[in-house]
Design brief:
Blueprint (H helix, E strand, L loop, with lengths): L11 E2 L2 H11 L6 H11 L1 E2 L1 H7 L15
Parallel strand pairs: 1-2
Length: about 70
């Protein structure tokens, strides 16, 4: 995560509605959820729990065990 300079003002996105709007605006510009996290934390002050709730989680691929005979 960015080591933020406390003297530089960044917009705050702590409201879920504002955060959702920012996500919709950034979505065409980013290629992955990792890049979305990076852009949000570099450009805005965000509630990370709210971001996690709005971004889809990467689910691991299901690994099925071989059936026993």
């Amino acid at each position: 995560m960015l080591n933020a300079d406390p003297l530089v003002q960044r917009p705050k996105l702590v409201n879920a509605a504002l955060l959702a709007r920012a996500l919709d605006g950034l979505r065409p510009q980013v290629a992955s959820p990792v890049e979305m996290w990076t852009r949000l934390t570099e450009q805005y002050v965000v509630d990370l729990d709210a971001v996690a709730a709005l971004l889809p989680a990467d689910e691991p691929e299901t690994h099925w065990l071989a059936a026993r005979d």
